[in-house]
Amino acid sequence: MGHKEDLYPNKLYKLMIPFQAIDWSLIPKTEYKGESGKAIWQTIQFEGLRVRIVEYSMGYIADHWCRKGHIVHCLEGEFVSELQNGKSFTMKQGMTYIVSDDLSSHRSNSKNGVKLMIIDGAFLGSSDK
What we know:
- With 129 residues, the protein is mainly beta.
- The protein has one domain (4-15, 29-124): Sandwich (Jelly Rolls), CATH 2.60.120.
- Helices cover 0% and strands 50% of the residues.
- The chain contains no helices and seven strands.
- Strands 1, 2, 3, 4, 5, 6 and 7 form a seven-stranded antiparallel β-sheet that branches.
- The two termini are 16 Å apart.
């Protein structure tokens, strides 16, 4: 596949992924420490696409501001997506947020823990790169 800058303008990023059923119970878990608490990731990686189930522990606060694009869907529990500009959004079970690369600095925190599906990849890249 081409470089990210080859995708824009007016080009559609085409992912070629054959049908796959994913049994998440078979996907290894990787633990990452937050500013407080921890995040546990289960990751499926394709060229240009990453799909994760992510669980934040009780009291989790991300240890960095993220500028990458994501599609984040709340499967269980709730969390707060905090933007560096001071805005925050409480995301509850069944809610989704979407943002492209470089359009916000955001980080997550969860008082009581949460389970998310997070999808990101080249298709969320910013067109000015």
